[in-house]
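Retry 2 of 3 after timeout on previous attempt. Resubmitting structure tokens to design endpoint.
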């Protein structure tokens, strides 16, 4: 059982993992460097543990001790309990779900073994908005995609906002990061993937018209917020596809577009 430890000082060094969570730029650098990430809320913490991420510690407000009792009893890490004003002073925000856990990162997957066993994947080019990234992971996992591949400049799926928006499904969808882009597309081809670039371009094929083989390996390329896929990615893709639009709308947010396209690919053939 995790040891319940009352904390009263926001400067307590044992709470360092939770300090300054609203400083996005600092946390984006610090968390990967220190090998940790934050999970928020009972469901997300449980999913992180189920996925095999070791717990470093938990931080709870008193009223969440009983609702979290099962996780506390299973925890092999200290469990800090502090009043809500203390949690807010440490983290920089009101912890609505009453529970945070600092989790240990595990070794990142390499692209090659991931691609060897996957059939339908999403490839995320420079998605930098953590909300969009988490939403894409949630849709891809829910709609049957096998994995995600990230370009070097793509945001961190384990950043707190991505984890929260995905409701912990970032732990359910395997992912790997390419070392180069668009050179990394060669790695996809080496593993037999047909690359489909999602774009609103007028020459693209409508998604409902795609005809894919039942065992065909397909990689759906999704571009960054605003600009979409780079010219280099579009030129290198095997095929361009688009979501038919109505009412004069030119495109969807990348997270919404990802959900539609993932459904189309996993429902195909």
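Retry 2 succeeded. Sequence:
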């Amino acid at each position: 059982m995790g040891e319940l430890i009352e904390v009263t000082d926001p400067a307590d060094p044992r709470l360092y993992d939770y300090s300054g969570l609203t400083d996005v730029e600092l946390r984006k650098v610090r968390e990967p460097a220190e090998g940790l990430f934050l999970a928020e809320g009972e469901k997300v913490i449980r999913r992180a543990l189920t996925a095999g991420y070791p717990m470093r510690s938990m931080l709870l407000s008193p009223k969440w001790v009983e609702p979290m009792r099962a996780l506390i009893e299973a925890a092999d890490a200290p469990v800090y309990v502090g009043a809500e004003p203390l949690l807010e002073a440490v983290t920089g925000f009101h912890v609505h779900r009453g529970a945070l856990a600092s989790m240990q990162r595990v070794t990142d997957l390499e692209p090659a073994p991931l691609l060897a066993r996957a059939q339908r994947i999403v490839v995320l080019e420079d998605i930098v908005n953590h909300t969009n990234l988490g939403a894409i992971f949630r849709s891809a996992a829910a709609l049957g995609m096998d994995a995600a591949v990230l370009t070097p400049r793509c945001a961190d799926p384990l950043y707190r906002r991505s984890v929260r928006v995905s409701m912990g499904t970032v732990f359910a969808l395997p992912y790997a990061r390419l070392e180069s882009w668009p050179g990394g597309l060669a790695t996809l081809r080496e593993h037999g993937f047909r690359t489909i670039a999602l774009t609103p371009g007028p020459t693209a094929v409508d998604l409902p018209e795609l005809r894919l083989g039942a065992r065909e390996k397909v990689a759906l390329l999704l571009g960054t917020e605003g600009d979409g896929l780079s010219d280099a990615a579009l030129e290198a893709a095997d095929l361009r596809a688009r979501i038919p639009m109505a009412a004069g709308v030119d495109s969807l947010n990348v997270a919404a577009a990802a959900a539609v396209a993932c459904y189309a690919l996993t429902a195909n053939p």
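Attempt log closed. The chain has a mean pLDDT of 93.
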